[in-house]
TrEMBL record:
Belongs to the class-II aminoacyl-tRNA synthetase family. Its EC number is 6.1.1.22. It comes from Facklamia lactis. InterPro entries: Aa-tRNA-synt_II, aa-tRNA-synth_II, aa-tRNA-synth_II/BPL/LPL, Asn-tRNA-ligase, Asp/Asn-tRNA-synth_IIb, NA-bd_OB-fold, NA-bd_OB_tRNA. NCBIfam families: asnS, PRK03932.1. This is Asparagine--tRNA ligase. The gene is asnS.
Length: 432
């Protein structure tokens, strides 16, 4: 007899199979018991009939606690009422591991309680659905970049440099030296682009940001493509094609997960349409001022109300392009049409999810970069290798970073970014 996941139910219709599962809930009346089950891949219903399994097993089933693990033998049946479309008519049950007084019950729990039990909370159907979306975004990322002959390069996590400014660094000792956990692999990806043309990374990054918002994690994963012989315009095209591809892939491959999350597919479909609108930073400031935001001046960074207002002008992600150089990192190339600004863009997701991508064209000229390293007060010794890239066959190049958990939160349509990470690192939370 085959051991299957109920995900494969369609291929085993009316056949007797073995399924290894956990009980999430149950109810019984008289001669019939309904078990809500999960086998890790899908959630499904199992039916136990007293006259099929016998009095003894039937009584035993009634005593099984939530999250007991069981090996089931039964027949796969069609069931139109469930999302899955199939259920299991159980013939026999073997108890693998008992579970008593499982802390997370079907009633409502507070967020702190759930976060303290994150190791168990992950088993719930909503968390399962979110992780499916996350997994699909990762899978689609590899597909998108592999299809375009980008090679995956892994930048280091322990570094001496700070691409995105020195205020949010996690400091650690590296034997006798000072080191930091990587904020971004970008600088290394630039070296890789000069070696391999088109590259991308996907790995953990760290920001010691003392912010407690629904968009910030201390540890998050970032996709960072970097492209040689590519100007910012061409990079923007890659960015929108990439994001549209992610949304498309989730729609096509995560049907059950999106149903569980009650995500409106029609809304997601709109995000597959290209191109995405663009607005110059300068025009965005005017738009905000004209609409009663008197707290914003040219030269200031946007907060989430500003981002959300601009995003709400459209039903698609929007690029805010050409930001003031004074509020952006040292490596961005000056915009020749307006030298107070740099060739960069933030992609803002709709529905208030905020910035999901930051990207720019990089300075490719030795002199300008050397001056900026000085101006920004960075240690020239630490960045000597980075400057080298401008000395030996420098070319125009651009890249960007997409925050995985921000993308997951947006596409899955969840309230808070903490649920987009299996074990989120938040301000004041290192447990579990
Ligand atoms: O805009 P950021 O800081 O850009 C960079 O790090 C560039 N070096 C990327 C590059 O050009 N290669 O971060 C990029 C993205 C943001 O748009 C956001 O999606 C995500 O990373 N991000 C965060 N996600 C969760 N929590 C945080 N604290 C985040 N900070 C940035
Ligand atoms: Mg940014």
């Amino acid at each position: 007899m085959e051991i299957i996941s109920m995900r494969q139910a369609e291929d085993f219709l009316d056949q007797e199979v073995i399924v290894k599962a956990w009980i999430t809930n149950k109810r019984s009346s008289g001669k019939i018991a309904f078990l809500q089950l999960r086998d890790g891949q899908v959630y499904f219903q199992g039916i136990v009939l007293k006259n099929e399994v016998g009095e003894e097993v039937f009584e035993l089933v009634k005593t099984l606690g939530q999250e007991s693990s069981v090996e089931l033998q039964g027949i796969v049946q069609a069931d139109d009422r469930s999302n899955l479309g199939y259920e299991l008519l159980i013939k026999s049950i073997k108890i693998i591991g008992e579970s008593h007084e499982y802390p997370i019950t079907p009633k409502e729990h507070g967020t702190d309680f759930l976060m303290d039990h994150r190791h168990l909370w992950l088993r719930s159907s909503k968390q399962h659905a979110i992780m499916q979306v996350r997994n699909e975004i990762i899978r689609a990322t590899y597909q998108f970049f592999n299809d375009r002959s980008f090679i995956k390069i892994d930048p280091p996590i322990l570094t001496g440099s700070a691409p995105e400014g020195t205020t949010e660094l996690f400091h650690t000792k590296y034997f006798d030296e000072d080191a930091y956990l990587s904020q971004s692999g970008q600088l290394y990806m630039e070296a890789a682009a000069m070696a391999f043309g088109n590259v991308f990374s996907f790995g953990p990054t760290f920001r010691a940001e003392k912010s407690k918002t629904r968009r910030h994690l201390i540890e998050f994963w970032m996709m960072e493509p970097e492209m040689a012989y590519t100007d910012h315009e061409a990079s923007l095209k890659v960015q929108e094609e990439y994001v549209a591809f992610l949304v498309r892939s989730v729609i096509d491959n995560c049907r059950l997960a999106l149903e569980t999350l009650e995500r409106d597919i029609n809304q997601l479909e709109k995000y597959c349409q290209l191109p995405y609108p663009r607005i110059e930073y300068t025009d965005a400031v005017k738009l905000l001022q004209d609409n009663g935001f008197d707290d914003i001046e040219w030269g200031e960074d946007f907060g989430s109300p500003h981002e959300t207002f601009i995003a709400n002008q459209n039903d698609q992600p929007v690029f805010i392009i050409n930001w003031p150089k004074s509020i952006k990192p040292f490596y961005m190339k000056i915009n020749p049409d307006n030298p107070e600004t740099v060739l960069c863009a933030d992609m803002i997701a709709p529905e208030g999810y905020g910035e999901i991508i930051g990207g720019s064209q990089r300075i490719d000229d030795y002199q300008t970069l050397a001056e900026n390293i000085h101006k920004y007060g960075l240690d020239p010794e630490v960045y000597a290798w980075y400057l080298d890239l401008r000395q030996y066959g420098s070319v125009p190049h651009s890249g960007f970073g997409l925050g995985l958990e921000r993308a997951v939160a947006w596409i899955a349509g969840i309230e808070h970014i903490r649920e987009a990470s299996p074990f989120p690192r938040l301000l004041n939370r290192l447990y579990p």
